[in-house]
Design goal:
By secondary structure, this protein is of the alpha+beta class. Helices cover 37% and strands 15% of the residues.
Amino acid sequence: MNRIFTPWRMEYILSAKQNGCLFCDMIAEERDRENLILHRGEHAFIVLNKYPYNNGHYMVVPYRHASDLEALHAAELAALLELAVLAMRAMRASLRPEGFNVGVNIGKAAGAGVKDHVHMHIVPRWTGDANFMATIADVKLIPQLLADTYDQLNEALQAVLAESGNLVHW
């Protein structure tokens, strides 16, 4: 039986592109669940990646529209790291990853999908999480529905925030 697999990134590639900034539009809307926003901090917010590399792929995004880290103020830079730590704590509690990839892609040449609004990726990793499907069929298998991942991580994030008093204590 022949099956046609639509690559997970094809949805993004083939979708109509909007004018303006995806992140700025998200911030202005009051539809956090639909936009997958898990937490709004003072200078930045945590959002699930709609086209994740792995289950639980978060992004931490400053509210202010800036194209790279150099344009951010010290408080905004600190907020990115603080929220990244909160996100990792929540992931450890709920998804139990064995490791993380954390990074920022600045500019189109570096692979930035949203090149004009800098953001940090936090990708949970497990030993053996890359499988053969990605190499032979151009397909990425995500073992959980995005809405279920949102609910699971949101519950864990709220618990971490309640435990830490909304702040990361260094």
